[in-house]
Amino acid sequence: MAHAESLAFVLVGGVGERLIPLTNYRAKPAIPVAGTQRVIDYVISNIWNSKIRNVILPTQHLPGSLNRQIKLGHSARFGISAEEYIDDSPPIPIRGRELGRYSGTASAVAQQASLIRNEEPDVVLVLGGDHVYMMDYRNFERFHIENDADLTIMAVRWPVADASRYGVLEVDKEGRVIGFEEKPADPKPLPEDRDHCLVSMGNYAWKYQPLLEELASDAKKEVIDDDRDKLEPERYTRQDFGRNVIPSTLRNPRRRVFACDFSRYLVRGGTEKERGYWRDIGTIESYYDTNMELRATDPAINLYNPDWPIYTYVESGLPAKFIHGNTRVVDSLVANGVIVSGATVERSIVSMVGKIDDGARILDSLLLGHNVVSAGAQLWRSIIDKWVMVPPGETVGIDHEKDVSRGFTLVDGEQEIKLDMLRSGYRCTTGCITVVPRAYEFTR
Length: 444
Prior knowledge:
The protein is an alpha/beta fold. The protein has 12 helices and 32 strands. The chain has 2 domains: about 5-295, Spore Coat Polysaccharide Biosynthesis Protein SpsA, Chain A; about 320-435, Hexapeptide repeat proteins (UDP N-Acetylglucosamine Acyltransferase, domain 1, 3 Solenoid), CATH 2.160.10.10. Strands 1, 4, 5, 6, 8, 9, 10, 11 and 14 form a 9-stranded mixed β-sheet that branches. Strands 18-21-24-27-32-30-31 form a 7-stranded mixed β-sheet. The termini are far apart.
């Protein structure tokens, strides 16, 4: 099959409420990962490595650092011609208002209906911008076209016990989707594997005409911000792909909808242990765990694969520097421009540009860049946002009541722990994570 002509939309406008305070100053896909990258780098690199050259990013929530990352890390490769481009697309203002706003992921693509109609691509890809994984989308396109599908949903096998926060698919023997539930309380397992189910990755391949028809049908409904769309889906909508457009498409008997099993494919240079690797950066816990996986001795995904590079904008060209004989850095990622001077860094990630002084101890923590950790300071299971300076002898992640009283965010699993809970006797598990907000100023 000849290479399909594709148009890719990368959905990057979400607020990322479960990632607050990390999303108070940036879009969710712009969050740093692995010390030198941003989450958005993964999907954009997958697009480039898959030889797709037409990309639209419907931006909305705090797009400044995201746009900068795209401009400095990716735009030069794609170019600015009518044939090859990567463009942001802010919402079009509604008449009588100064600012426009997408009401959902579907409306973000619907506003580009004229572009889709003019280009008539073989495949329209609608991709999430907040996931860490490697995928050759040409395999996705090939599966979609060979099955003559109107819509193909990229899916991955996932443990039933952790599937209730995703869209869960039911498929027949040919891979055709016969059922879909968004965030079900009781996910349905696969018939041949009762411990796993098939969850949507939030990535879709469409024929352009069915896509436009489904978006036009959704646009005729009343837009609401409550749950009436679940009770009366033919009348109400929140203009969301997973919540509204996909279920509506499945109810349409004229549509051929298939699920493509992501775990069937490996990228060039990929190894068997990477099969099915996909992480949704949706919560503080998942963000922390994903980073900790990437810094592991033998991670489940290879960031050093020369055949499938993850492109990024490298903020500093300065080398990392370790000085003094008592410096100890173990099982960690330390990025460009970081100086470690007589300190201990274990099982941690220190992002670009910063200094860690004598006697400081950083354990199981994530520093997001431009940080100074002064002499004798101690960090444990903490996320320190950009531009935070930790004073001499200060602690983070050790005294949880002290941390929360200072305005830090404390999460235990997916639950945020409040000060009154701690004072009433709540004791965090060993999985508690402390988040220090951006540019926080410590006081004595």
